[in-house]
Amino acid sequence: MRMSRRAIGGAACAALLAWPAAPAAADPEPAAAGKTKAYMQLNIAGNSMHKGGLAPAKEVVSLVKAEQPYVVTLNEVCATQFDYIKKNLSGSGYRAWHGHTGVSCKNGSAFGNVVLIRIASSVVGNWALPNPVEKEHRRLLCVKATNYAMVACSTHISWGAGDQVAQIRAVADRLATFRAKGYRVIIGGDFNVTPTSAALDPMYDTCYPSGAGVLFETAGTRCAARSGEATVGATRKIDYIFFSEEYQGLKGDAVPTGVSDHKVLWGTATY
Question: Number of C-alpha atoms within 13 angstroms, CB side, residue 214?
Answer without folding.
Answer: 18
